[in-house]
Amino acid sequence: MKTPFNRFLYIGFVLLGIYQSVYSKDVIQAASSFGIAMAFDPFNSEQKWNERPTWQKAVLIVHLAIVVALFGFGIGFNNQGS
Predict the structure, then answer these.
(1) Above 80 in pLDDT, residue 3?
(2) According to the 3-state scheme, what is the secondary structure of 25-62?
(3) Is the separation of the CB atoms in 60 and 38 below 8 Å?
(4) What is the pTM of this model?
(5) CA 32, CA 76: separation in Å to the nearest integer?
(6) How big is the CA angle at 27 (ends 26 and 33), to the nearest 5 degrees?
(7) Please, are residues 8 and 48 in contact by the beta-carbon 8 Å criterion?
(8) How many other C-beta atoms can be found within 10 angstroms of the C-beta atom of residue 29?
(9) pLDDT of residue 82
(10) What are the Cα distances from residue 50, in Å, to 11, 33, 54, 74?
(11) How far separated are the first and last CA of the chain, in Å rounded?
(12) Which residues are CB-contacts of 46 (< 8 A; sequence separation ≥ 6)?
């Protein structure tokens, strides 16, 4: 895939995740959308990890941390009935 098309998909899934977490209050779906967004690398996907600038690595690591935090939050607080 070409990088500009990946950026549109990445941004679309990130915006969908924000909508699902803020307005729909569905944290698990938001985590899924954020996770799917990571499949569409917004940067040059042909560039190796070691060759990427530090800021690109930081963006992707923070994004991954958000996905993990949302999953943890969703699993931890969706256990209200028991």
Answers:
(1) no
(2) CCHHHHHHHHHHHHHCCCCCCCCCHHHCCHHHHHHHHH
(3) yes
(4) 0.78
(5) 16
(6) 95
(7) no
(8) 17
(9) 45
(10) 24, 26, 9, 33
(11) 45
(12) none
Phi-psi region of 53 (alpha: psi -120 to 50; beta: other; left: phi over 0): beta
| SS3 assignment, position 82 | coil
SS3 state at 12: helix
* C-alpha to C-alpha distance for 7 and 29, rounded to whole angstroms: 21
The torsion angles phi and psi of 35, rounded to 5 degrees, stand at -65, -40
Q: Express each pLDDT in 36-70 by its tens digit.
A: 998 888 888 788 888 889 998 898 899 899 899 98
| Residues 61/63/65/67 CA torsion (nearest 10 deg) | -140
> In terms of residues, how long is the chain?
82
User: Residue 52: left if φ>0, alpha if ψ -120 to 50, beta else—which one?
Assistant: beta
- Taken in order 25, 26, 29, 32, is the CA torsion positive or negative? positive
